[in-house]
Amino acid sequence: MKAIRRFTVRPVLPEPLRPLSDLARNLRWSWHAGTRDLFRSVDPGRWAAAGGDPMRLLGSVPTERLTELAGDRDFLDRLAAVADDLDTYMTGDRWYQRQSGRLPAAVAYFSPEFGITAALPQYSGGLGILAGDHLKAASDLGAPLIGVGLLYRHGYFRQSLSRDGWQQEHYPVLDPHELPLDQLKEADGAPARITLALPGDRSLRARVWVAQVGRIPLLLLDSDIEENDLIERGVTDRLYGGGSEHRLLQEMLLGIGGVRAVRTYCRLTGHAAPEVFHTNEGHAGFLGLERMAELRAEGLDFDAALEAVRAGTVFTTHTPVPAGIDRFDRELVARHFGPHAELPHLEVDRILRLGMETYPGGEPNLFNMAVMGLRLAQRANGVSLLHGQVSREMFAGLWPGFDPEEVPITSVTNGVHAPTWVAPEVYRLGARQIGTQRAEEALSIGDSDRWDSVADIADQDIWDLRRSLRELLVLEVRERLRASWRQRGAGTAELGWIDGVLDPDVLTIGFARRVPSYKRLTLMLRDRDRLMDLLLHPERPVQIVVAGKAHPADDGGKRLIQELVRFADDPRVRHRIVFLPDYGMAMAQKLYPGCDIWLNNPLRPLEACGTSGMKAALNGGLNLSVLDGWWDEWFQPDFGWSIPTADGAGTDPDRRDDIEAAALYDLLEQRVTRTFYERGRSGLPDRWIEMVRRTLSLLGPKVLAGRMVREYVDRLYTPAAHAHRAMDADAARELAEWKAAVRGAWHGVTVDHVETSAASATAELGSTLALRVRVGLGSLRPEDVEVQAVAGRVDEEDRITDAAAVPLKPVGSPGAGGEWVYEGPLSLDRTGPFGYTVRVLPSHRLLASGAELGLVAVPPEDVAEAAGLLMR
């Protein structure tokens, strides 16, 4: 029979065991081995059955066992030690508290998904895992973040396969009361509520759950409450589900409701109010509008409120293609804002202008969330060096007149949270080498001194470690494969072959990720005969473990999975290649350590960063990847291989895939497998072991989320906090009025004459040119602008490359026509073809970049031709 109502019955712990509840409710257990070991010892069998989830474990342990533990002095001593360790972790000074200067009092970090642990399934892929790692690393560093997201009742879908290999989706219902969450409550004990106004006098209400991620509170808004009508209750049903209006409501609740949740949390707990708001991708972009509405209520007009909000906002873009950005019909957006809906005191047409694609090639009737995010943030970044470059080119239309390299979007390369992703066996080997405390610091903060000690680990120890991790993966794969085949309808008698799947002594390749077409799941199948030869080679075989989910609406991605599954079902190769359904954090934590090679073959440059290879590297896995994302930035032949790309404009997609697949097979046949199987005098693969050692020592410190968060603090959060403090109401009004005046007068800014002291078209390295420039400023003053000489090498079309800007200074008084003369030296510090030009930019002390307004004046062609622009 089916229950008509469901309750969550919490265990009553004996008084001596009460600290277990606190330990279970702080998600630090998900990356703290000592806490997990303690819970495992409560009941190893039930711990395994609970999937390593302390909340589920405590709900299943019999009262007799709890009574027994309450009288076990050894267990209580261990419990006290672990509880004391958590208290020290939560209250002691860490890296952030030891920094000098006025760092942000708090940072609010908004993301549509967070991958903290499999016990809190609120993630779909890399964006969520990155957000979870960001919070964990911030906690380890002591950075005062507040995470903000949504609580999805179905999380992301669970995946299984049909008998013929087609992806099937399942949406299990999550009960928040069974998750490691606490409701945010008012002082009188009533649940805190967040309310958004909807068209037609309707409301969207949400409660706020708090997940404690170490030192970081993560606020999750949940609309599935009785006060809402059916449609509103479903707003937080599924991650990335529903149609356009559904997604718009999710993003309004995340951004606008998220700011209100932060304000409520700070009011109720005394947490410092955020000085910086970090928008992790465009989904949360509406947070800027809510903060503007707050300032409008304090008396600022729209433009001044915009400047105040921009000063303290950081926007991170994660997509390298316009199609990956959420865009809404402008009429849909307009209907949800204004006098009869949300944010009634913000002019709807001004809101729309923030997101409209008002640049060449843009869609004038679409509201672009990333465009709004960039316009509402004074600081923006991509997530790898290459992605920063791609982002500057993709969004260059927002800064007309500037070369892509000057678009004010920087990059902070992603990192991964090592304590989450490093296998216990790898950690124990490191701790044995340098000590437990130093090993923890190496993983959370990272510096090369600690990682250099990898050089002292014996070859045999490294090789034994890698084999043991491979053996653990083999056992995990067999268990998961057996469960998958039973879901596909196979009987036990059909599955005896699974006991022979994979071999702990065979070179193991991993490939696991989401399955959009650009990641090319099936590139390895391009020449099936060559792949079979690799899998079945009598002396140097390989085995491949594949996992991944396609979006429920992506039939193309599902067909790719089916194609791979059907190949892996072939009795000739099924012991050497497997597809594991339901890829998630729990599987990933077993998969990364056990693979010798991590394969990544996206279409370059469509991988923004791609952090799965970083997780493999932290466990001694070597990367075999296209030079895209982070691998483009840090690849060295000492610790991996690069797959050549055929990305010329004239190469058709099929031919490109053929060329790149052939290059992949060549690398595997001629270099990768030979390096793995060739033995030196010691009987070990010396070259392979040295590549593992270099992966750990050279890549280890770079790929850490601790390094990433420290970069955010130094390069983005702290400057944003300083800008926020400087942008009080008077400063915001001043800057808004100045920008309006500059925009209105810019048509009168001209470069009228350029002359130089150069007597010929050649000059010697180290010599200096004297520049004299006459500019018209119209109604502007010299303090409103900066006149620059921009110089550097020139290409065949006389475009300046690796440009450097040199400010020129005004001399004398304005001429009769209001023109000014600027002068300055130009050093010739590079040999070869060299050129310069002159330009005028707006200048103000509160600007983060000279390109911020997208205004620039350059010489007209007749002035440029008379200026002697090129030195050859």
| Tally of strands | 27
Percentage of residues in strands: 15-25%
The major sheet is characterized as: 10 strands, mixed
Mind telling me the C-alpha Rg? 29 Å
Q: Sum up the overall morphology in one term.
A: globular
Bin the helical content: 25-40%
Cofactor: pyridoxal 5'-phosphate
Pfam families: DUF3417, Phosphorylase
Protein name: glycogen phosphorylase
Domain DUF3417: 13-120
Q: Any overview of this molecule?
A:
39% of the residues lie in helices and 18% in strands. The chain is of the alpha/beta class and 872 residues long. β6 and β7 form a beta hairpin. The C terminus is likely disordered.
Q: What's the quick description here?
A:
This protein is of the alpha/beta class and 872 residues long. The chain is 39% helix and 18% strand.
Secondary structure blueprint with pairings:
Blueprint lengths: L18 H7 L7 H10 L1 H6 L4 H5 L4 H8 L2 H19 L15 E4 L15 H16 L3 E6 L7 E4 L5 E4 L11 E2 L9 E6 L3 E12 L2 E7 L7 H4 L10 H26 L6 E5 L6 H11 L4 H10 L1 E4 L10 E3 H6 L12 H8 L10 E3 H7 L3 E4 L2 H10 L15 E2 L6 H4 L2 H11 L1 H9 L3 H5 L6 H29 L19 E6 L15 H8 L6 E6 L7 H14 L8 E4 L4 H10 L2 E4 L11 H7 L3 E5 L2 H6 L5 E4 L9 H25 L8 H14 L5 H22 L2 H17 L4 E7 L11 E9 L8 E10 L5 E12 L7 E9 L6 E9 L18 H5 L4 E2 L1
Parallel strand pairs: 1-2, 1-9, 2-8, 9-10, 10-13, 13-14, 15-16, 15-18, 16-17, 18-19, 19-20
Antiparallel strand pairs: 3-4, 5-7, 6-7, 7-8, 11-12, 21-22, 22-25, 23-24, 23-26, 24-25, 26-27
